[in-house]
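notes to self, project folder thing:

trying the whole complex as one job this time. last attempt i did each chain seperately and stitching them together was a nightmare. two parts in total, labels are on each line so i dont mix them up again. if this works i'll redo the older ones the same way
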Amino acid sequence: MVENRPLARALTHFALIMGVFFLCFPVWMAVVASTHPADALSRAPIPLWFGNQAWENYSTVLSGGIAAAGGVPVGQMLWNSAIMALAVSFGKIAISLLSAFAVVYFRFPLRMVFFWMIFITLMLPVEVRILPTYDVMVNLQLLNTWGGLIVPLVASATATFLFRQFFLTIPDELVEAARIDRAGPMRFFWDILLPLSRTNIAAIFIILFIFGWNQYLWPLIITTDESLYTVVMGIRRMMNAGEALPVWNLIMATAVLAMLPPVMVVLAMQRLFVKGLVESEK
Amino acid sequence: MEKRVFFRDPVLPYLLVAPQIVITVVFFLWPSYQALESALYVEDAFGFSRQFVGLDNFRAIFADKVYLRAFGVTLVFGLSVTVLTMALSLGLAVAADRVLRASTAYRTFLIWPYAVAPAIAGVLWYFMMNPTIGIVAYWIEALSGTEWNHYVNGNQALILVIIAATWKQISYNFLFFLAGLQSIPRALVEAAAIDRAGPARRFWTIIFPLLAPTTFFLLVVNLVYAFFDTFSLIDATTNGGPANATSTLVVKVYQSGFVGQDYGASAAQSVVLMVIVMAMTVLQFRYIDRRVNY
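result (full assembly):
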């Protein structure tokens, strides 16, 4: 602050505290609701402080799910989400590193054509090509398979551009040195490029993990088999469980569990997360 | 920018780009081409034969009142989310930038909603604003006497999804605004203060203009978010209702395609969405060089 104004200072803190309240209150309410029995949430006003049913609610959803919504255990959905998020982020990183390496360190016919093909995918989110993509999945018999859930999400223009930008900042002398030592391109990639990219890989991994974990539309159209449900998509069934009233204490327990892994990743690796977010959008 | 030094190999570069290109062609380019093509045909109910109809599918969707309504809903929704998000997060970023020492602590509390899935954000607010038990609905009724029921009131349902979508997007905007603010040289602000420009004057004449590239970038990002990424938020909560009051273009394309099984109409809507997202991407990349360097 340039000058010392106590009133302005107090107002600043007040604004920030209001912002924090606005962002944190819904989660507070979700956590509180997930610790009460169902009948405590049947009439207004609902409690603002914790109840004593936390253990019962969380163990119910983790092992048995919500009966009216097909009773798919949330534990299994969390596991599916974890597999999907990890496979998608590792896959994206692997193939983006390779294609960025090819585009930056080689000269070959069609190089720019490939580059633009990757670029165009930015303009084709699944929402705009939903039905024909579904047909492709049907023809390739990929519905209700892990491959169908993961492979089509593995292409990544964002990660390719990030790695391309980074590779362009690496001094050419390193390539020359590698060549003098008679290292081939793949040796250069493994022993020099990959170790240098470690921080960037970690930063983009956080963004991609959140992307993979939070997928909704893709699992919704690809999976009808309950054993493949992911948690973010699975919560939809609990909300619209036919005629039955929503079981709020269990839905909120599920929501808390669904938020926990990506939020923990962001909080635990805050510095890398900010770097990944700001740089991947450049 | 290009490398001066590079490797030569007749096969290797193709092998390296192959996985990315194969996935791109099979799951992105080919389906998109299919959407373009089938937007020009009408298919019979069993999918056995189809007939070329030119732009009839487009004429049909633009004559459809429900579709035009979805355009209007998308605009209101997109603009409200964008304006609210940017105003709130700019305010918070300016505040966090002023409290130098505590700003990291506040930042921690303000950035985590980025990690919450839009669908979950929707579920949280759906619970808080539930007409019978929602705490916020209870407060609204106690304080203003307005009856809150987004199950029947379309405007209230739209407000609900706007608030949830804004809540989720504030963190992202806050981080970019804060990074933009921190890259403004302190000397500029101090020089203005020496010339006796007050905080408001300094903000509008120095800080805000210098933030323009960040603001523009966020404007496009937020519109794309509101138009495309909020499908899950709406689908998991209001499901487009009541009476299509929260049915945006993306909700509509999903419903025509998967619920209505109308191939031609869904493809025509896909093409309209493609044009929108292309225009946004081009806008974003045209101005990308003018952005602040962090």
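what i see at first glance: The beta strands of chain B are 41-43, 50-52.
need to look closer tmrw
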